[in-house]
Structure formats: structure tokens, C-alpha cells
Amino acid sequence: MSEAAPLTFSFLTLFPELLAPFASEAILGKAAARGLIGVNLVNLRDFAGNRHARVDDAPYGGGAGMVIRVDVAARALASLPPADEVILFTPAGERFTQRTAEELSGREHLAFLCGRYEGFDARVEGLVTRELSVGDFVMMGGEAAAACVLEAVARLRPGVLGDEASHQADSFSSGLLDYPEYTRPPEWRGEAVPEVLRGGNHGAVAAWRREQALARTLARRPDLLPGAGLTPQDSAALLRLGVSPAQLDAWGAPPPPVPKRRRSARRGAAVPAPAAEGAAAEADVPPER
After folding, report:
1. Carries keyword Nuclease (predicted)?
2. Model confidence band, residue 14 (pLDDT cutoffs 50, 70, 90)
3. Residue 218 included in any domain
4. Residues marked as catalytic
């Protein structure tokens, strides 16, 4: 199987020096050095079209601040190879999420327009394929948002992380917040690492981690649960955590598993089998006569 082509990120910005160190250090720098990703920093001033390298002008209709010209953005984009997506950072854009990162990680070339001042001339919207926002707050420019997207998307590319499966259990990748992690020392200031993590039973560890992820999500981000792809075992765990059956139904969660019945060896009676770990408690089933 041939290796995947590298994913190139092109950032069109007035301040490429803000992104240069971020893209050249740590894991991103190593990934770039190995040819897994490429980071192309394009200075919008190089396409100003005037000897003063001026890229902005006063807004029509008056008002505070300056607006970046559409013709500057168009010339900068035209200098690039064709991009799979041309993305504008703007408060009006769709919310950037882990799902968005996963989608973008499958592309080969992404171009990003990073605004400053009062942003771009509105006609720039006709040059882009997507508008993104990293949150409901205002920054001084798009470079910080670009750094967030670069890291979130690049880490999903094959070979960028040392452990190919490490991102699959991350917060939001599974639809839930991540479970708590522990390392040495085994006890610190009276707080011990949970015994299940030191017992060597991988099945028990996996079950504990899943329930911890559910508990954290329920306590901190319950809005994530309706879209988390819950299983019957998850429903049983959520019931133990105090969620009502009505709430599970509102989330579209499946019913918890029903314990299987087993035959008594001595009397041939049908009795409930011990509930599997993660199953909801059921009323006792009377013996058959």
C-alpha cells in the first residue's frame, strides 16, 4: 500500500511570524520534517499591489477600523496550487469541532484566510468554500484559530502521532469526554491510583474507563450524550449514575441489556443469571413451577 500524500496547510496572513514557530516545533515540526504534513505561510502584504504594501482600506459607509481588500486576498489565493478547501476564520462560521477536524484530515491541501483589523471585505466570502469559528469570543486575528486547527487536524494524519490509535480515545472522538489518566507515583498526598488500573485485567480496565468517561460527560458536558452513540451497556451505567429512564429515552439511548436466565442444576428451576458487569438491576424472577 502506498503512503498517503502529505497534507499541506496554507495560511494566508499578515503575520506569518506568529505561526512559524508553532508549525516548526514539537510534534508538528517533526511531522513536517518527515514529510507527513506541509505548512505554507503566505504573507498577504506580498500581494498588496502597491509600493507601500498596504492591504487594507477604510470601510465604505464609515465606521471604526480598517478592512482587508478582496483583491489582495484573491491574488494571494491565486498564487497557490488548487486547494480542496478554502477556509475563512470568522465569528459567523460554523463551529469547529472534532468531527470537522476528522473531515479536514482527509484532504490534501487546505488554505486558510486569517483576518485582522475589521476582517476581510465581504466579497471574500465568494472566494471560500467554508467559514469556521473556534468559539463564541473575539480575538485580534485569525492566527490563533489557525494554530488550533493546524494542531487538531494534523495530529489525525497517519504517522504524525507515535501511537496510531492514541487519538481514537480522545475527548470528543468517541462522542464523550476522555476518562481520567494516572501514572506514577501510585499514591500521592493520600490519593491512590484506582486499584482496577493496577490489576492487569484489561477487560475490567476498559469497562472502568468507559464508565468514567460517561460519568465525566454526564457531570460536565451532558449536552454531548445525545450524540454519543450510546450502547445498552452505557445505558445501564448511566442508570447506575442516577440518570432516569425517561432521560435515556429523550437522548435516544438503547435500553439496558436484560440479564439472561439460567437453570438451577438441582431443581431445574429458571433463575436469573448474575447481571453482567454494566447491566441494569432487574427484579428477581420467580422459579417456574
Report:
1. no
2. very high
3. no
4. 91, 118, 155, 170
CATH of the domain at 70: 3.40.1280.10
Strand runs (DSSP E) across the chain, as ranges?
7-13, 37-43, 56-57, 67-68, 85-95, 109-113, 130-133, 187-188, 191-192, 261-263, 270-272
Instruction: Decide if 160 is inside a domain.
Output: no
Q: Which residues are annotated as a binding site?
A: 115, 134-139
Write down the pTM of the prediction. 0.80
Q: List the domain range (segments joined by +) for residue 79.
A: 7-154
Residue 279 lies in a domain: no
Q: Per residue in 81-103, pLDDT tens? A: 999 999 999 999 999 999 999 99
- Which residues sit in the known binding site for S-adenosyl-L-methionine? 115, 134-139
Domains: count for the chain:
1
Binned at pLDDT 50, 70 and 90, residue 269 comes out as low
